[in-house]
Write a structure and sequence with these properties.
Elements (H helix, E strand, L loop, with lengths): L7 E6 L4 E7 L6 E7 L4 E5 L4 E7 L2 E5 L2 E4 L3
Antiparallel strand pairs: 1-4, 1-6, 2-3, 2-5, 6-7
Length: 73
């Protein structure tokens, strides 16, 4: 099944050094990609056939089709 049109999320860093980590699908969940954002930087990420989860570490605002989440609250 192709997930080329998977859900997008937007991550905006509220501080320097926010980590965004992509996790794989499959029998064993593994890290497959990592980015570091500084305050004010924005990243747009997509769930795909390879990405089943996205982990955000640090103070950030995350916008999803399901709502807004502030990781520092």
């Amino acid at each position: 099944m192709s997930r080329e049109n998977g859900d997008f999320i937007v991550i905006k860093a509220k501080e320097n050094g926010v980590n965004v980590i992509g996790l794989t699908r499959g029998k064993d969940t593994r890290f497959h990609h990592s980015e570091k954002l500084d305050q004010g930087e924005v990243m747009i990420a997509q769930f795909t056939e390879h990405t089943s989860a996205i982990k955000v570490r640090g103070k950030a605002t995350i916008l999803t089709p399901y709502g807004r989440i502030d990781s520092d609250e």
